[in-house]
Amino acid sequence: MSETNSERQKVVIVGAGFGGLTCATKLAKAGNVDVTIVDRHPYQLFAPLLYQVATGGLPEDDIAYPVRAAIPGVDFVRGEVVKVSMDAKNIRLEDGRVLYYDQLVFAVGSEGTTFGVPGVAENALQMKNIREAREIKNRLLQTYEDVETGAKPKEALRVVVVGGGPTGVEVAGAVSEMQRGMRREFPNIADFASVTLVEAASRLLLPFNEKSSAHAKKELEELGAIVKVDSAVDRMYPTDVHLKSGEVLPAGTIIWAAGVAAPKQWAELGETDRANRLKVNDTLRLRDDVWIIGDMAHVITESDRPLPMVASVAMQQGRYVAASIQALIEGKIIKAFSYKDKGQMATIGRRRAVVELPNGMRLHGTPAWFSWLGLHVFYLAGGRNRVSVIADWFWNYIAWGIGPRRTVID
Amino acid sequence: MSETNSERQKVVIVGAGFGGLTCATKLAKAGNVDVTIVDRHPYQLFAPLLYQVATGGLPEDDIAYPVRAAIPGVDFVRGEVVKVSMDAKNIRLEDGRVLYYDQLVFAVGSEGTTFGVPGVAENALQMKNIREAREIKNRLLQTYEDVETGAKPKEALRVVVVGGGPTGVEVAGAVSEMQRGMRREFPNIADFASVTLVEAASRLLLPFNEKSSAHAKKELEELGAIVKVDSAVDRMYPTDVHLKSGEVLPAGTIIWAAGVAAPKQWAELGETDRANRLKVNDTLRLRDDVWIIGDMAHVITESDRPLPMVASVAMQQGRYVAASIQALIEGKIIKAFSYKDKGQMATIGRRRAVVELPNGMRLHGTPAWFSWLGLHVFYLAGGRNRVSVIADWFWNYIAWGIGPRRTVID
């Protein structure tokens, strides 16, 4: 799309997530480099709302933003990167294509990890992409259908969510609300449904203040969820989760939200931490022309405490790298990356959320929920998606308890 | 759900479409009979908008309305009916369950038919349910991806739609607009895309006035579609449609919109016409307690010209049967069904439609399109779906040509 010019630097960005797209947008605005984004999917996944798709709150189209032609002047190549040759300055795609770069921005994000717990891969559903979210939704809804016709026992309606971080809390809350909604459609069996949230640590939302953790637990319990802290999972089977304490939790559906890690295949590029994140210097680089951002990056600092794997970090890093590449071109000095803490938030249900601002302020309940809602709608990339999501949420909000739930399709 | 009373008549309605749901709603309001709806899906399919799902204009959730608990006081049974025993007054489901009735309302709708044209079943995509519409959408969008990477030849971007009735015209128009939208996202290949609409008769929209037919053809051609009338299909192969004239149309995607028929399996219940419709008397009955409505019914009249297989007919018949069952209970005489012509409409594209009112009035272009839009939004069963559909259409409308298209997911 953009005119090729031998003087212009070629920037290749791998990964069309929050980090990669933010970086591309900023570079495209500067207009003095050729930018190519590579991704295996032609859409940006709005991952923070995957749990809404998994529980029937939003259609999947609402969280997939078509990325081709999304940023004027930026080329898009669909493909899976299988090799990075830093000495030859190129990347190789699965189909054999080779793309050369002057600057490489690597931003492929993270994936679910089982931490080696036996039985997770075979028996638990993960939730890191749309296919997996769809699988959870179909399982949750189809189970009601199957229990209703007698094809499955009533115990199949028990859901166990493993992992008390923001994702686990969000899923457990949304499943709980979905189960309430089902009382109207399946009055004979809905009372057998339950959701249990299991967390190994002594409280939910470990990175949050203890008061927020306690609030989240209380809110989940008000919604009818069972919360088990200090409960590490030992192993799991198709219909049972075994805790290290010896307790056995029967489950028709097991959702694993206990951890994410960077893809292991890129460990060869440098030194990694336990979550396979590549350790980068304070300019987010492995070497002069290779930048690592987002969930993949472990920035070495004095405290050596890695930044959280969230969209806000990835976006700040994407902007930083775009500005740094501009500085390189202009022969200026590149300043070290410094993270500006934007606080953290987790939603529990309708008008139930916890928000912590960097100034120490904490919001709970309705105000927290509205700020969560506003922020997510604001960050949804596409105008079309934003309109649909608002419509769907608006409807969810006004029709709570009387409106129809999503249904099993085909 | 409703209290069982030995005095109360048990009405079983097979099929949760426009006819069945209208009948159930009206019977539930009367409140003096026990109503059970049986359907193989737990949702009502809004079939008139299937083509929008097939061309990426609407997410599939928007046209599937959860039907369990949709009508207070009406029971829902999910299952596939495999046998109707009119003498024993019961129906049998696939899983062996048997439901007894006092009054049976049979409203299972229609399905696609190939009219025996060789190659249709193997090579053409049909569009009678959500799975099929999803298949068309994935094929259309994935072809762009495959041509872009070289996995498929550019000729794969040619689409042939067979059948110049309202469905074929709607699909051809929507494909044409989708292909226009793709120019921005696939600038290197989009010009190779085309859509050809093939109709055996001498004009499109045969049941409409000739002026409407001519208008539809002109509008389609303005959108860039190729319209071939007097062109009967002889046979088809994976990448070719052969016309009876000997002409061969190369095609990457073939969409068959040439005809629908009632499911053949119910022909055993009575006398049928060429489209497998059951011939019923002027009270829509096969016998005193068996009512046939909607696409399945061929009402015997003096002209013996069957009514069109559209939602408006099914809904009128559903209301009529509900009222007639009430009349039976009250010992009143049942009047003959009389169809009130509501006119007909077909949309071609954005602000392009033809509408014919029963008084002979014809609307074209923008006013026709807005009345089409209004009517469809009005008839979408669920409030939630209505909100989403309006949001999606609103966005389509304001973002035309600049907004993102739906994308291939996974």
Mean pLDDT, all residues of chain A:
90
What structural class do you assign from the helix and strand content of chain A? alpha/beta
CATH-defined topology of the largest domain in chain A: FAD/NAD(P)-binding domain
Overall domain count of chain A? 2
**What oligomeric state best describes the polypeptide chains here?**
homodimer
Q: Strand-residue fraction of chain A?
A: 15-25%
Q: Given the C-alpha coordinates, what overall shape of chain A results?
A: globular
Radius of gyration of chain A: 22 Å
Q: Could you give the count of β-strands of chain A?
A: 25
The CATH class of the largest domain in chain A is Alpha Beta
**How widely separated are the two ends of chain A?**
41 Å
The number of distinct helices of chain A, counting runs of at least 4 residues, comes to 9
Low-confidence stretches of chain A: 1-5
Which chain pair shows the most residues in contact?
Answer: A-B, 48 and 48 residues
Question: What features would you highlight for this structure?
Answer:
homodimer, 410 residues, alpha/beta, FAD/NAD(P)-binding domain, 2 domains, six-stranded mixed sheet, four-stranded parallel sheet, 9 helices, 24% strand, globular, disordered N terminus
Description:
Two copies of one chain form a homodimer. Chain A has 410 residues and is α/β, with parallel strands linked by helices. The first copy, chain A, has two domains: 9-110 and 262-329, FAD/NAD(P)-binding domain (3-Layer(bba) Sandwich), CATH 3.50.50.60; 120-260 and 343-398, FAD/NAD(P)-binding domain (3-Layer(bba) Sandwich), CATH 3.50.50.100. Helix content of chain A is 30%, strand content 24%. The first copy, chain A, has helices at residues 18-30, 50-54, 120-123, 130-149, 166-185, 210-222, 311-329, 365-379, 383-398, and strands spanning 9-14, 33-39, 43-45, 64-66, 74-78, 81-85, 90-93, 98-100, 103-106, 111-112, 158-162, 194-198, 226-228, 233-237, 240-243, 248-250, 253-256, 260-261, 278-280, 285-287, 290-292, 297-299, 344-349, 352-356, 362-364. In chain A, the strands form eight sheets. A six-stranded mixed sheet of chain A has the order 5-2-1-9-21-20, with helices on one face. The model of chain A is unreliable at 1-5 (pLDDT under 50). Chains A and B meet through strand 4, helix 4 and helix 9 of A and strand 4, helix 4 and helix 9 of B.
